[in-house]
Amino acid sequence: MEFFIYSRKSVYTGKGDSTGNQVDMCKEYIFSKFDGVTNDDITIYEDVGFSAKNADRPDFQRMLRDIKLTKPDYVVCYRLDRISRNVSDFSSMIENLTERDISFICIKEEFDTSKPMGKAMMYIASVFAQLERETIGERVRDNMLMLARTGRWLGGTTPTGFTSEKAQEIIIDGKIKTSFKLKTQPEEITVVKTMFEKYLELRTVSGVSKYLIKQNIKSRSGNLYSLNGIKEILQNPVYCVADYDAVDYFTELNADVCFKKKDCSDKLGLLSYNKRNYKKKHAPRQPIEKWIIAKGKHQGIVSGKQWVAVQNILEENKPDGKRPAKMHNDYSLLSGLIFCEKCGKRMFAKMRRSKNKNELFDYMCNSKMRGGTGLCDSQNINGQQADDMVCEYLMKYTDENSEIYKLLEKLKKNIARQSRENPLVTVDTRIKKYNDEMDNLVNTLSQGNLSTAFIQRVNARITELDKELGKLTAERNRLQKDTGIIADKEVHIDMIAATLSSLKNNFNDLSIHEKRTLIRLLVKKIVWDGKDFHIFLDGE
Fold this sequence. Notes:
The chain has three domains: about 5-145, 3-Layer(aba) Sandwich (Rossmann fold), CATH 3.40.50; about 165-315, Hect, E3 ligase catalytic domain fold (Alpha-Beta Complex); about 395-535, no CATH class. By secondary structure, the protein is α/β, with parallel strands linked by helices. The chain has 16 helices and 16 strands. The chain has helices spanning about 20-35, 60-70, 80-85, 85-100, 115-150, 185-200, 205-215, 225-235, 245-250, 305-315, 365-370, 385-395, 405-420, 425-445, 450-505, 510-520; strands at about 5-10, 40-50, 75, 105, 110, 160-170, 175-185, 255, 270-275, 290-300, 340, 345-355, 360-365, 380, 525-530, 535.
């Protein structure tokens, strides 16, 4: 008889039996229950530092692969949760073992799937193991929220204007536990106050940004404050005093406010929890009704009235879909396509009024828009003249005898040659051949009366084929990606040719959006050096 022993130790707890102890106990059980078994009949699999919440564990996966290649009589573990705490993963493994007539033994719970009652009890126990894991997760979350209601800082990167400091306090049964609270950082907190003051004065985030740039005020990392960074600060309740206005604002928005009006303060600030959904990618901000608002132990920076006024202005300034974004306005062709050579930033269209009150526009680099000539003093470009100049330049390429048509034809021939020489078919043939050979070898192993030497040779060949298949699969993925790129290039060349034809025949009749689309199909980018344009066409 042949036995596989699986043991696992999680990094998430310092308690429990080591993998070595688990293996020893499994061996003792095997030797006591089965006669004539030696250490040579036992293969050991150990995972240290892996949770049982899923099956993504190296030795566990190795065991599953070996079960397919070398059919053991029993898989043995010390305790059920060493294998899995997920019902789906556990059920899948048991079904796999049952199909191969392999029994599963769990010595702690005394389950043996070679017996009907043991199999039934095993499934029931796995359900409770998963329930325990989910309950632990809920309990941890509830404890975190309970601590949050006390106004403690629960850790992580401190907000701009604050550091954290330890505080000792007695919590349960006289036991002293360490908690943290926020402490103001004078230099940064002055900057935060300035942001709120300037926003109430200027009413735009970009206005605050320009002021900070002119004053050479930078973040703790030494960089200029980004627009998103400034907005995050203005929206953070940590700077708001825990007064009546703050309570009324969050109560009206159905947030979970953890203190009564009688406990309000004109000095202490707010702490907010559960603001982001960390179960989703990029942890998006949750609606305010899911927030938990507590009175903190730190100094508030702006009154509730001021903070609420800032939130109202931010809400008013939200994009409503009616005002076009600076890259996608209704009057310019090249906004966002031009780059300033001096600072490397994109240039965007900006409206201006002439002396005769006609509406004109210029292209201005983003650095200059944000911080004026202090960040970049590159010359602006007259927008209409720039659009006309680029369109006139592109019209020269609409002649079918132009160099760009010849280049496109040459590229298309090269791509056609690459398609004919595609080695993907050869790789697919080799993969099929190796898979067929492996299937035949596995079928051979399932037959009885085979010598040990023959089985070893077959296993060695299967291992060799498995490695070769891994290499071929990786090669196939690479070739498939290359094939996709080749096809995309061919389509792109056809689109460029069609675009040139449209420019020649229909350009004047197209809408501003259609013209913009055609230009972006032809032009990679345009660089402005302060005097001249440098146009880089796609395909050149």
